Structures are given as structure tokens and as C-alpha cells.
Amino acid sequence: MWLGFPSHAELWREDLGPAQAEVSALARALAGPGAERVRLLVRGDDAQAAAERLLSDTTVEIVRGEFGDIWLRDTGPIFVHDKGSPAAVSFRFNGWGGKYDLEGDDAVAGQIASAAGVPLIANDFILEGGAIEHDGLGTVLTTRQCLLNDNRNKGWTEADAERALGLSLGARTVLWLDRGLRCDHTDGHIDNVARFVAPGVVVCPLGFGMDDPNTDNYAAAAKALSGMTDARGSALQVVRIPSPGRLIDADGEVLPASHMNFIIANGAVIVPQYGTAAGDFAVEALQSLFPERQVIGLPSTAILTGGGSFHCITQQEPV
Q: 158 and 176 in contact (C-beta within 8 Å)?
């Protein structure tokens, strides 16, 4: 499991230390009950020293690299089998539609592929890993808000996107939701709205509290998913899990908090927690869906100030 470590003081400011502590706790969980080989990507001497201090008693490997920020799900490669051999697939990245142009983000995929010892297959279209969710059997979930946004691949139609996902990732069926979370700078990444927990089984949030800003979006997503079939022709089973509810930042703006941003490891599922009562309910609900894994809730309030959570900062590399 590749994991990005907060390394830029100018980006994280007062949240740098707390975010480094939360990422370190995630790395510990992934390397411990998660039963993963964890490779932590750090940038610069200060970040490396902080990582070594926080993780000195673990098996986590610290790897120096260049990157704009920690969102490896979007800047890193996606690992695939190409003619029976492992390969890393990369895509163009434009800072989520031109919002954040950071030096080094376009080099992440190549660095990870090189460290993994696999060929890099580059694609000449824009795609972030958090914009797609796949079941491993040919079914891909995504949102029109993101993939068909003119700030990504101008003029793309559903047919264009489906063709590109089929050629690059082997997608046989693409299932479309309209939109993602409100106030999400990613323009509606699917990994905050719907996730596969098994072939044919998708989890989707349920609004928590009377003032949850996404209750309508969640209901629309669940209704749409319940009428869909996957690449095998099987109807999707939809399981609802409580959202964190309404979270706001210091300026009163709604934050894109989601329990859907969990990460599935070999031996555990790590779920972001945001200090709301719904967190324990989400862990309990996911544990019933992953009886063979330990479901662990960990704080992610500092990481969230950067705009994402655990799934956003990780990328899995298969054996």
C-alpha cells in the first residue's frame, strides 16, 4: 500500500503536525492489522525526519520522492494486469480541473511504477483514481459531474468516457451517478458517495442529522444504484451507511466528509472518523459487511482540511 505523507508546510500550515500524526496512525494500522507492506512517500528532510520519529517502531518503509501533495489516489498509477503481467496505468492530471496546480504531481505515477518494477502505460486523457470505483470484474462506477466535466476532457460524452475506461482499465460496464458531495473540490468523486464492498454489493451513505447537506444527493444515488446491474448482469444490492453529517470549517464552509473514503487492506478496513456520533455506527455497519477483516475507525479531521481522507491518500499495489 502506497501512502502519501504531508510534507509541505506552506500547504498544511497549522494542520501539518496533526495531519502527519493521522497519516502515521493510518500507516500503523495498515502495516499491523491491515497486514500490508506499507511504503510511505515523503518529500524533503523535515518530512522524512517527522515520519521516522512517528514510525520508528514499525515496518513502514519511508520512500523519498517528489510530489505536489499527498493525494496519491489521484496522482498515482492504477495497477492492472496487462496480458497476464502487472503494469501501472497512468493518466493526465490537471489539479482537479485546474484548481490546484502543484509541482511534482505529474511525476508521481512514474516514481511509483519505477519503485514497483513494472512498466508504466500512459494514457492521454485526464482521470483521477478517486473518480472511479471498480469491482475487479469489469464494472466501474463514476459520476457525470466529474468525468463529463468540461474542466477535465472537454466535450466528452458518456460513450467517449466508456470507451476510454474500457481500453485503459478493461471496464466492460460503466454505471453513472449524477453527482457527488456538495462543496467537494474534486467535482463529485465517486469514492465519497458509493463503494463496492463485494461484487454486486455497493455501500452508499444515509444522511445523518436534520441538517446533513447531502441527504438529497445520497437518496438520489441510492435510488439510482438500486436499479442498476453490473457487468455480470446481476442487480446491485445497496447497503446504506450513516454519513458523518454536517461538518464545517473555521470559515463556516461545509467540508466534504465521508465514511465512504475507507481503505480496504488485506486484513482490515480503515474508516475515517470526524468526531461525530455517526462514526461508530459506520464502523459497526461496515464490520457486518467485512466479517473476515477487522474494521477500524481512525481520526481524519486534520487530513480533511486538505480536502480528502484515507482512500484519497492511498494506492494499492497487488502482489
A: yes
